[in-house]
Amino acid sequence: MTPSTITFTARLREAAEVVEASLETLLADKVRHGEIARPARLMAAMRHGALGGGKRLRPFLTIETARLLGRDGEGPLRAGCAVELLHCYSLVHDDLPSMDDDDLRRGRPTVHRAFDEATAILVGDALQTLAFEVLADPATDADPAIRSDLVLGLARASGLGGMVGGQLLDLSAEGRYGPADLAEADVRRLQMMKTGAILTFSVEAGAIVGRADAAARGRLVEYGRALGAAFQVADDILDREASAEAMGKRTGKDQEKGKATLVDLLGMEGARRECRDLVEKAQGALDGFGPRAEILREAVRFVVEREA
Amino acid sequence: MTPSTITFTARLREAAEVVEASLETLLADKVRHGEIARPARLMAAMRHGALGGGKRLRPFLTIETARLLGRDGEGPLRAGCAVELLHCYSLVHDDLPSMDDDDLRRGRPTVHRAFDEATAILVGDALQTLAFEVLADPATDADPAIRSDLVLGLARASGLGGMVGGQLLDLSAEGRYGPADLAEADVRRLQMMKTGAILTFSVEAGAIVGRADAAARGRLVEYGRALGAAFQVADDILDREASAEAMGKRTGKDQEKGKATLVDLLGMEGARRECRDLVEKAQGALDGFGPRAEILREAVRFVVEREA
């Protein structure tokens, strides 16, 4: 590992720790806002779905993007936690029996296996709500224009035209709703919606709380898009290669379900080439930000080399 | 019917029409924000879940509360539509097989019957997201502080400490998660969370967009709470009495599932008395607003006399 890789790994781990602590506080079983005590079962299941796992890549991107712009502390951390809560909700719902029907997530039982299906649906619902609650709370930013901008951005990245729309396209790609014969453009669109939009917003959220001007925000969004696309190609490559042990979840799933991936469409070598191109594109978008952007450059390398 | 009842009925119908048209626009199958076309199946299922039915009581309350404060037009309408989208999402998820397992809603097949379970879960998810997107959009209010306030209020009313928490308590009340022996306080808490919080917020949203001062907002929230509680007691009474034909959905469901309602705890006469007390309380909260509040007074009567 190069020195910058060591720094990156330490920063990623450090961010994961503060995010975990912050999510723990947000999900603490105590009365807030004069609320009467919350249902204990729902609290426990939300904690199961959101705590104790994951690299916390999304909040890391939010925090580091804000730091690049000279902003740190509670604001970027809370914005990052909101993105992570949104991500956790999507995992809980995607794992449901009527969706991907997964029993394990990060080596632990999924929420509907550890609790039950109704509880898992409500956990996802409540985690989504909590993400928006966190963003709209004055503790995230004193400026309500920043808070509204964050809410609007997260909503657009995660709804019908973003993550949830992408999940429906993904189910369609299995052939559930009629024959699926996806061309390259369809696979790219599906991936951009399903995983790319939220990864891009993780970066954009940092740009928003960091008060980036329009030009800087545009370049950071470009970085986020390339990083999101690289993440997904790398995922397709991993899905084909990795063993179940290394990933802690079932793999080869896409193949099993007959879903076309970029590896099918471009070939393994073509997919690897695309990955390299996207890394270059993402890093190019950071050119104007100088050496302080090194950590975000490392983030792209990390995203495509996750199997190591 | 008295003249004021005629006015009320006309205003309720008129609000339902503008709300329907506005929801239609929000759910129109067209490209917005430069989005690539949305998945057609998800669009169609969202339309099934949100259009063509219901009295639209919640947006009516938002619109009329804002009007009482001298504000009308697009802002209150959009705020009301957001509350309605949130309400529709909760109905779609509550109807799911693992929840209340209902085949019919307003006399039509529920979303998971008309489409499938995975699609219905995604419909609920996307309707929730859209509710927050609508509130955070500058088209709802030019002032970002108002928009943030709306987002925060809706999130608190609908999440873990509100509607979703109430739904989990409701499932618990069926005895799914161990013996359920609900005392009066538990039933009241469940109802306040499950249905009362969103009804209260319907009114509060009107107070927020209508720029109510703290005192007026407090009284309107008090009105909303009493109205929400009256709604639920009336629902318990209806559930015991009404026939399946009159309601367009299965009734006597609570009894069938062994859930305690206020009718069990207070008796039919006690429940009717509580209804009358709540009507009086709600109307009392409107005392300082003069004759322009007559429409909101009628709304409480309407809520408790729905069976007529």
Automatic annotation (TrEMBL), chains A, B:
PANTHER family: FARNESYL DIPHOSPHATE SYNTHASE. GO terms for molecular function: metal ion binding; prenyltransferase activity. This is Probable farnesyl diphosphate synthase. The keyword Transferase applies. It comes from the Bacteria. Belongs to the FPP/GGPP synthase family. GO terms for biological process: terpenoid biosynthetic process. GO terms for cellular component: cytoplasm. It comes from Microvirga subterranea. InterPro entries: Isoprenoid_synthase_dom_sf, Polyprenyl_synt, Polyprenyl_synt_CS, Prenyl_diphosphate_synthase. SUPFAM superfamilies: Terpenoid synthases (SSF48576). Its cofactor is Mg(2+). Keywords: Isoprene biosynthesis, Magnesium, Metal-binding, Transferase.
